[in-house]
Amino acid sequence: MQTIKLNNGIEMPIIGYGVFQVSPEECERCVLNAISAGYRLIDTAQAYYNEEGVGKAVTKSGVNRDELFLTTKVWITNSGEKKASESIEESLRKLNTDYIDLLLIHQPFSDYPGTWRAMEKAVRDGKVRAIGLSNFYPDRFVDMAEYAEIKPAVNQLKTNVFSQQWEAEAEMKPYGTRLMAWAPLTQGDPDLMTNPVIRALAEKYEKTPQQIALRYLIQRDIIAIPKSANKERMSQNLDVFDFALEKEEMESFISLEKPANPDFSHRNPKLVKFLLDYDRQFNPANKK
Ligand SMILES: NC(=O)c1ccc[n+]([C@@H]2O[C@H](COP(=O)([O-])OP(=O)(O)OC[C@H]3O[C@@H](n4cnc5c(N)ncnc54)[C@H](OP(=O)(O)O)[C@@H]3O)[C@@H](O)[C@H]2O)c1
């Protein structure tokens, strides 16, 4: 597996397996399948409510812990120094591990500077190897990166062939922060299958449009974490290292950028309120 070097010298796989919206019951099976398909990076989050499934799969997989790279994220309701510290302990327990490879602040809301201080302490205490952000668009990102003693190793943003994040990437560069793509397969946007640029490349390289989309990201040195519940598609999503897009082909993606959805903007108060209320609505523990 190709790796990428973070700004603290740690190497992480450039492709991983994401488990958003994988039910706690399904998660163990999916992660076991992913590890047997060859994934070594697993991306979960406190707010996916499936960290225990990841932990069980990691233990059962028989793969040495130091060959795996686990990412999780602190949710908004655990923000602030004290609560974040406690939640890191809980994530370690659920993941059944002594350390987290990469820990992110999931959303730029509530007391996230306090969360960052707890994360920096977890690094100093040897509980976390690298820390970063998620959904910190350029203004919030620069604010946090300037505040931080330990500069963010990654920023996980919605990034794919239709949402290319050039501006975000440019703002992150001075801090050595790597872009990590969520929704790398566009979350099933039907245009991925019909877009003529992508179709032509898929035909030329005898790959699927999804494989072209992933290849585009890794050729930009962007870490991608595609999700699939299907074993065959998990393997297909890893099978992107035996071809390379040409320079002009990479440039041809620029015209594919689509306008961002204003309803899903982190600057839209409705989305902020939805996310602030997310845990109350979706945490299975609240439904008991
Ligand atoms: N930081 C954040 O705020 C944030 C937000 C969202 C997601 N994420 C992370 O990013 C990961 C990936 O994002 P995502 O799950 O939203 O979207 P995604 O990976 O772009 O797309 C997942 C969808 O693509 C389908 N799919 C996967 N491989 C395929 C293939 N080879 N051919 C055709 N269809 C395929 C999956 O269906 P099947 O399962 O049926 O294959 C699923 O419906 C998440 O799991 C999570 O770890 C982070």
Descriptive notes:
This protein is an alpha/beta fold. The protein has a single domain (3-287), classed as Alpha-Beta Barrel (TIM Barrel), CATH 3.20.20.100. 42% of the residues lie in helices and 15% in strands. Helix 1 packs across helix 10 (231-238) and helix 8 (196-205) crosses helix 9. The mean pLDDT is 97. NADP nicotinamide-adenine-dinucleotide phosphate (NAP) binds at residues 18-20, 43, 106, 134-135, 156, 182-188, 208, 210, 225-230, 233, 236-237.
Summarize the structure.
The protein has 288 residues and is α/β, with parallel strands linked by helices. It has helices at 24-37, 51-61, 81-94, 112-124, 138-147, 166-172, 191-194, 196-205, 209-219, 231-238, 247-251, 269-276, 278-282; strands spanning 3-5, 11-13, 17-18, 41-43, 69-74, 100-105, 128-134, 154-158, 178-182, 223-224.
